[in-house]
Amino acid sequence: MRRRPTPESFDPRQVRPWNDRLDGLGFGGDYNPEQWPDDVRLEDVGLMREAGVNLLSVAIFAWATIEPREGELDWGWLDDTMDRLHAAGVQVALATATASPPPWLTRKHPEILPRLADGTVLHQGSRQSYAVTHPVHRDYALRMAARVAERYRDHPALALWHVDNEIGCHVPRDYSEAAADAFREWLRARYGTVDGLNAAWGTAFWAQRYGSFDDVLPPLTTPAQANPTQQLDYDRFTSDALLDYYRDLRDTLREITPHVPVTTNLMAHSTTKGMDYFSWAPELDVVANDHYTIAADGERQVELAFSADLARGLAGGAPWILMEHSTSAVNWQPRNRAKLPGELLRNSLAHVARGADSVMFFQWRQSRAGAEKYHSAMVPHAGTDSDVWRDVVHLGRALRALGEVRGSRVRSRAALVVDWPSWWGAELDSHPTGDLRYMDQVQAWYAALWRHGVTVDLVPSHADLTGYDLVVLPTTYLVTDADAANVAAAAERGATVVVTYFSGIVDEHDHVRLGGYPGAFRELLGVRTEEFWPLQEGETARVVGKAVGGDATVDLWTEKTHVADGTEVVAAYDGGPLAGWPAVTRADAGAGQAWYVATRLDRPGLDALVGRLVAEAGVGPDLAAPAGVEVVRRWAEDGAASWLFVINHTEREAVLGDDGSPVAGTELLTGEPVGGRLTVPSGAVRVVRAA
Q1: From the candidates 166, 303, 630, 667, which is the catalytic residue?
Q2: Which whole number is the average pLDDT over 288-303?
Q3: Catalytic residue at 166?
């Protein structure tokens, strides 16, 4: 698929830091001046100064404005914008302008349009109406990126490049002819021979054996279930194809501006299934992420924390950019509720607490027209006499007060494995239950750790687990031998390792590991499941044992599990067809412990179990806080200083430091000294530089 090699002369050491010309933390958002007349653009600059904006993404959807007709280029408005922003002290994440091809391009080359699995063509009229694998679109996109880079390569406002926009957001899986050709090329590179493909895909089943790579199709709509490994490989291929598109654009920019950092805005959160971002992150000079809360979720602050921790995990612990979130309501949920008082500040600083060095929004000024006109912005339809604008100005002041945390990092001794191949594989069809959702289990375990005040690193199964005392693998369905050994080694070194149901079941080809479940982890856990026993819709069971708080209700999944000598049954089913069979087990593993959770526990049961695991591993918080109060600490790289973020999500005042762990230092948002006891009003945030 690669069309353009990385420039041979490129040296990553010459890339300057993305924020080297910023004073403190970044603050701003997407800026779309092409939507507004010049008098509004001039007003924008004054308002940006008032709010303290210092970083903007520009020209994301500007292709048709820059090139309204093929070969006819209009740079005047963008030249003026770049010059004005520089004069105002604002740095720019300048986009390649390729996020939506202009209408003249899709009319001239309709073959670049993407398709669904049933053959439906996705036409021009919204955005991302392109097939990333089509060479015609690729050539046009690279040409536009090169034009932008050549024109603004030396502009003093240019801080970094913003490649395309939310790549794969609307078309994570394309089934066009171009995609089919690229898939066959990808398979040749992966398997070498068609015999290798046949072995990996198990094509002896249902007479699917291939005689040539030319016979292979994407997993289109079929009479019955498509080959599962074919589906899994198509997930891998399309993630790689989207990444390849990013790489080509990035390398085009690097040929012209090797000193300018390059990124694209990921969508690392609990619903972005299409791209394996752990394979993407090393290709970005700085990780940038977009995140939007769900108004209907009464505990949306937990999912926000998950997304922020995932962005930090992708960044390898380094600071990252929050490239987009919302000041208030969005436009794409069933009911688009405005944010509560103080929620804009809490959301923004929760991302900062978990590693963001820049806070940005979609968008600067709320659009008058178009599909996103009811999406909130920093300057709302109501103008500056509005709570949203006042909150934006207040946030700008807060971020200036927190400038000293820039470059600091979060430390954690607990790791939660997030694995995209397991996500893809666990949700394939023809499984023991069609109701299993991989991310539900990941989120449940993360939320339980959040409620216990544990800061968590989100890592892939191949990560270096050396520094972790607690490692949790929720439904890690697909593992390689090497990754399974990596997990076992963590327990051998002394970690508490927790594996949940439907983990270790298959190898990387989605072939079942024979001999009993959980396959790759049987020896580590000291268990062997002979048969899955999924529960029907609405059906529950009961388990008993101190580890789950005495008794707990379970649903979705149970198993007929045998234990080896030395494996302790800490919770068992009480009643029903599996009465007396193990539900939760614990075994010694080297210097550590290995737990198996063979069912889906209700919230009280899971909280009780996580409480025991946290105590056993010794990874509890260094500062106790009331329920609903989020506490995270960032550390200077040399460990000489730290900043304690305390976010009160409750309707009650919270007091910390009365339990023998005093809080002392300076509160940065108010400038007040803290002498051992910290009071955080309802809905407020406090950030204490430790004494």
Answers
A1: 166
A2: 97
A3: yes
3-state secondary structure of 334: coil
pTM of this structure: 0.97
- Classify domain 414-617 at the CATH class level: alpha beta
* The length of the chain, given as a count of residues: 691
Task: For residue 67, indicate whether it is catalytic.
Answer: no
671: left (phi over 0), alpha (psi -120 to 50) or beta: left
Classify each residue of 180-212 as buried b or exposed e, where b means 16 or more C-beta atoms within 10 Å of its C-beta. Answer: bebbbbbbeeebeebeebbebbbbeeeeeeeee
Q: Tell me which residue of 452, 489, 450, 442 sits closest to 594, measured CA to CA.
A: 489
Range scoring the smallest mean pLDDT among 346-355, 414-423, 497-506, 653-662: 653-662
Identify the CATH assignment for 629-690 out of 2.60.40.1180, 3.40.47.10, 3.30.930.10, 2.60.40.420. 2.60.40.1180
**For residues 270 and 253, what is the distance between their CA atoms, to the nearest angstrom?**
31
Tell me: pLDDT of 660 over 90.
Answer: no
* Model pLDDT, residue 5: 57
pLDDT of residue 7: 65
Instruction: Dump pLDDT digits (tens) for 617-650.
Output: 999 998 999 999 999 999 999 999 999 999 999 9
> Would you kindly state where each structural domain of the chain is located, as residue ranges?
12-173+243-407, 414-617, 629-690
Helix axes 177-191, 228-256, angle to 10 degrees: 100
Instruction: Tell me which of 303, 324, 559, 667 is the catalytic residue.
Output: 324
The residue behind tokens 């993305």 is: 18
- CATH classification for the domain delimited by 12-173+243-407, as one of 3.40.50.10580, 1.10.287.3510, 1.10.3720.10, 3.20.20.80: 3.20.20.80
234 φ/ψ angles, rounded to the nearest 5 degrees:
-70, -35
Burial track 72-104 (b if 16+ CB lie within 10 A, e otherwise):
eeeeebbeebbebbeebebbbbbbbbbbbbbee
